[in-house]
Each structure stands twice: as structure tokens, then as C-alpha cells.
Input
Amino acid sequence: MSPPSEKPRRATYADLEAVPEIKIAELIGGELYTISRLLPRDSLAASGLSRMIGHPLHFDRAGPGGWWILNQVEVHFPDPTEPGAIDALVPNIAGWRRERMPRIPDVAAMTLAPDWICEVVTPATEHLDREVKMPVYAREGVRHAWLLDPVTRMLEVYTLDPAGRWSTPVRYGGGDTVRAIPFDAVELDLSDIWD
Output
């Protein structure tokens, strides 16, 4: 007779805090995920996109405005699988409409779900971004999600439907010039973010 199998230990926020600062740590459903920081190529794409949308939507008072655009901010959501536990995610870029969040709180982690997120998809993070994090963002009502892949030079744009499901993605590639929701007031030349 085999001994009863023990339930695997759930990771906690203390486990996340113990991860060396050279890694990015996320806690989802009691599982700890650690990933390396972005490669320079991937960081270039993320920072380029952040500047392209951040300038007119965050900083430029003459532009369409109305958004806070933040890079690699930790966001906490309740973990539905364990009372009192949290999911801690770190989107590469996140945006909040100022009408929902008039001021940026002075906190270590946000608890208000973003209105938009962008994840930089790499071979090392693709499963985590697509299969683990996207369902959490949908569950928490994040209305818009972008997946940016610097290797294939592809931008995928998702919108959450009223039933809480992601739309079929609209895909843009290479040197496309796009107006993608929710930032369709701004024209983005994707060739500017790849290199």
C-alpha cells in the first residue's frame, strides 16, 4: 500500500520576496514563476512601445491623454483557489485610465486591475504569458491585452468580450503602421520599436 500523496506546498508571497532581484517573480494560483529580465532586444521593443503610447497618452497634455502608462509594476489580485491568498503579476507594460485611477497610489503593488496590459512574449515566457497570465487578466476584467513578440516582430491585440473571453487577436507585423485599440487615437509605426 502506498502512503497517501501529500498535497504540494503552495508558494507564498514570502517565497516571491525571497527571489533574487535579478529575476522577475510572479505568484499565480499558489505557484511561483521566476523569469530573467528582458534581453536588450526585447527591452528595446517594450521601451519603444511604452514611449510611443506613453508620450501622447500619458505625458502630452495636448494629445489624447487620459492614461497612466507604467512599466513592470506589480499588480495583486485575489487568488480564487485559496482564501486570503493573492496572485502577484508583473506585466511588462500596464495602463490605467485616469478616470478610474485619478492619481497613482504610493504603494509597492497595485490592487486596481489595469485597463490594458502588454506582455513581451519571448521563447522563455510564451507559455506563462499566454496560458497562465492571460486567463488571470481576463478573470480580473482587464479590457485590453497586447502581446508583443520581438522575435517574430508581431503585435497581437486582444479585447475582452462581455462574457469575459478574449477576442480572436488582431495581428500586426513588421513595419505595419497601426491604430490599435484602446490606443487607436495614436498611430504606431511598428518598425520604430523593433530596432
